[in-house]
Task: inverse folding
């Protein structure tokens, strides 16, 4: 969990134009392994860097349903 120091530091970075990208996996794609969960963080970083990848995106159909 974030404490007040973390939150204030993130605010300072954001106000300076930075982007906060916590290494928190997302679970809407229903990952089945640790590797799949970790790849959601990698996919988010690739998105922020403007690099293409073949990750599940929110709102797209998934064959895992």
Result:
């Amino acid at each position: 969990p974030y404490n007040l120091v973390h939150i204030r530091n993130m605010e300072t970075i954001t106000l300076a134009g930075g982007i906060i990208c916590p290494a928190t996996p997302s679970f809407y794609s229903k990952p089945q392994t640790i590797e799949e969960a970790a790849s959601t963080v990698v996919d988010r970083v690739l998105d922020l860097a403007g690099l293409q990848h073949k990750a599940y995106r929110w709102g797209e159909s998934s064959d895992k349903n």
